[in-house]
Amino acid sequence: MISSNKTGVQILVEQCVHHGMEHVVCSPGSRNAPLVIALDEHPKVTCYVIHDERSAAFFAIGLAQQLHRPVGVVCTSGSAALNYYPAVAEAYYQSVPLVVITADRPEEWIDQGDGQTIVQKNVFKGHTRYNAQFSENVKCGDEQWYMEREIAIAFSEGSTFWKGPVHFNIALNEPLYGTEEITPVTARKIELVRGSFQFSAANKDVCIQAMRLPRKLVICGQLDPDAALLAQLKIFANDSSVAIFVENTSNLVDQKFIHCIDRTLNSLTEEELEHFVPDLLITIGGAVISKKIKAFIRKNKPKEHWKVGFEFPYMDTYQCLSRSFQAEPAIFFKEMNSLNYERSISNFGGKWKQKDFLVQDKMGAFFANVDYSDIKVFETVLDFLPEGSNLHMANSSVVRYCQLFDPISTVTYYCNRGTSGIDGSSSTACGAAASDLSILHVLITGDISFFYDSNALWNNYLGQNLRIILINNAGGGIFRIIPGPSTSKQREQYFEARHQHNAEHIAKAFNVDYLRVSTIHELEAAMEEFYTYEEGGRPKLLEIRTPEEKNHLMLEEFFKAVKVVAN
């Protein structure tokens, strides 16, 4: 097998492949040439070339989300590495196994005025699960043992229980392009082993006492689809004193659950609130989108808050954390369901679900009469969403609008909620779509997010399985929705960043099919063409222009309609 003639590179690549990293996104450069050569020549590695490092790293996140395996990103030295940082932070808080490999200059040239040279060692330290520094030439014996051990520890930390990004920084001297025939080294693993989760006798007693409480609430954050967890939660929800809140990004759908937290919570009157406060709160999964539920729980603290999962075990989102269970959520709820206890006669879960049903009953009448606006567009777009597709939601107002509508059970929902930034939403969707061209991926994005990440389309891996729905309301419409900036005189120029741009020429530049509509009738008429597949077709972008002055008013009308239900 051909590889770089630098032994440190040979060991690094072989070890990464041995640990399951078989997809790597490379950005062009010179200093990383030995890494790119070794990866491209390796028979088990698929390489992608993305010029823009910021986009490349988010593209890799999209691949990792779909493949459920560690995915690598490789760049040259200097500021190229820093362009990875937004995606590294996203992967850290979303628990995505991203393998960041940065080529560096020799240590003696750091801070000596040499080109493309910065301090790269531990540059991502605050947002990685493990960091390691390597040299280009490694001798057999202790040096090889150390390097293999460091890589094995990194993958054990970043790809097992608490997943997340790891960083390998390797200093490389010129010449950089030499190759040689090699026999792959025998790689090693260090497996992190944990016993199966099971309640101790003391924990059983605690859980039984807690389950006798009359009001229990489970809040599910961002999760991958998990059939075992869904089955256990459905059993847990059979207890009438249990309410289960999920969001679209939880990828958990059942008629017993509350799927639209803000929509349901907003229907409560001030007089009713005290009857809907839980005694026990159990949280699972990653980020929760709803600010309303965070504020509600922080103001009305339960007696107990249990966090379940391996990631960030001491994260105290609701300011009342009392226990943290290091376990897979499906296994935890299986244990809970096996407990033998006398159930509460409370109908806490039923009360929440009754509110949810009342709101759902009014949805049809509201949307039959609402003016053309963002919220009407979302209702129409989601109604036409093909079953079995993957839906990627950009941040800001897009993901919040989507939470007002019940999820489709056959659709899988994705959003970069680790850091909740607008950067990288399009790149992540493009990477996800590139993982399997036979699966439809739909991205709904706002104009600011789209223009910010327009380099997402600058690659050779876009297929006709990618559909982009761009809702253009001429600026950051969320600043008319959230309290505070809506009354500021700086709103339009500094917060919303008003503009009159459209995406037509961006689409043409990257050979993406383009459609544009500005009424609900045009939108409905365009849907068939938008989702039509053509032999050898390209991705399609549908730009929907909405009235910026009316959007926030129609959203206010929606929440007023929900309030009427409660009265």
Task: Set out the fold topology.
Layout: E1 2-4, H1 7-18, E2 23-26, H2 33-41, E3 46-49, H3 53-67, E4 71-75, H4 79-82, H5 85-94, E5 98-104, E6 130-135, H6 142-159, E7 166-171, E8 179-181, H7 201-211, E9 216-220, H8 227-236, E10 242-245, H9 261-265, E11 280-284, H10 291-299, E12 304-308, E13 323-325, H11 329-337, H12 348-369, H13 374-383, E14 390-393, H14 397-402, E15 412-414, H15 425-434, E16 441-446, H16 447-452, E17 466-472, H17 491-496, H18 504-509, E18 513-517, H19 520-531, E19 540-545, H20 551-566
Parallel strand pairs: 2-3, 2-4, 4-5, 5-7, 6-7, 9-10, 9-11, 11-12, 12-13, 14-15, 14-16, 16-17, 17-19, 18-19
Antiparallel strand pairs: 1-8
Walk me through the structure.
This protein has 567 residues and is of the alpha/beta class. The protein folds into three domains: 2-177, Thiamin diphosphate (ThDP)-binding fold, Pyr/PP domains (Rossmann fold); 201-354, TPP-binding domain (Rossmann fold, 3-Layer(aba) Sandwich), CATH 3.40.50; 370-566, Thiamin diphosphate (ThDP)-binding fold, Pyr/PP domains (Rossmann fold, 3-Layer(aba) Sandwich). Helix content is 36%, strand content 16%. The chain has 20 helices and 19 strands. It has helices at 7-18, 33-41, 53-67, 79-82, 85-94, 142-159, 201-211, 227-236, 261-265, 291-299, 329-337, 348-369, 374-383, 397-402, 425-434, 447-452, 491-496, 504-509, 520-531, 551-566; strands spanning 2-4, 23-26, 46-49, 71-75, 98-104, 130-135, 166-171, 179-181, 216-220, 242-245, 280-284, 304-308, 323-325, 390-393, 412-414, 441-446, 466-472, 513-517, 540-545. The strands form four sheets. The protein has a six-stranded parallel beta sheet, sandwiched between helices. Helix 16 links the parallel strand 16 (441-446) and strand 17 (466-472). Helix 12 (348-369) crosses helix 20 (551-566). The longest helix has 22 residues, at 348-369. It is globular, with a radius of gyration of 25 Å. The chain starts with a strand and ends with a helix.
